[in-house]
Task: structure prediction
Amino acid sequence: MDEVSYKKYHNYLTNVIDADIRLVIWNAKGRKAEILDRFYKGIGKENCSKIETVAMDGARTFISSTTRHAKNALIVYDKFHIIQKLNKTVDDVRKAELKNARSSNNQELIDMINCKRRFLLLKNKSNLTKWQSNYLDQLCEINKPIFEALLLKESFSAIYSLKGTLKDKRKYLSGWMKEAAKSNLEPFIDLARKWETKAEYIFNWFKHETSSAISEGFNNKIKRLKRMAYGYRDIDYFMLKIHQHCGLLNPRLSS
Result:
């Protein structure tokens, strides 16, 4: 499950996707817990009890509603959104350092971490070219906060390729939380504080490697649908079009 913006100023649709059939099966306006409650109540207690896994972006509203209704479900804070959060946190550190560089008129650092260079910090280390890797090495030498931010990002990402038991992975995750909390980087301290209450859901990925990344693909389809129509005045009609293009009402399913 995930939300997608359909209008400016934080107007969202909540979409529920069946990962087995890879289709949108339900949507509604809003993203509060009460909205998702309607989905669970609609399918009934018996069907709720049969749900095995729910992948989401870690939103508290989704977690509270799912915990209340799908009591047997394993809630997974999926890898896709976690990496997305990590990248955003690294970028927050970059923005803070860029602000400091401008205040001190450090033109060399300004040129290295301006918006045009931000993608280098967000790129997976294994996908960097030799030039990009050397560039980051040079940047890390002259700026300690960015160096520390990249280390924290890479050390967390390493948990997904870590060999060992679930106990080893839980210990590693706990250790990373402590390291982030002890850092001098406010964005990472804030991230560790938020993730501390969701650590179990992050860890659940190793029990069942499911992801809500499929929802991002549907979000792109929905946004494209909105652009093609130059927006929709009637939100109910827009939700109907979503089911026609991404759900069970798709005419191609009958062929």
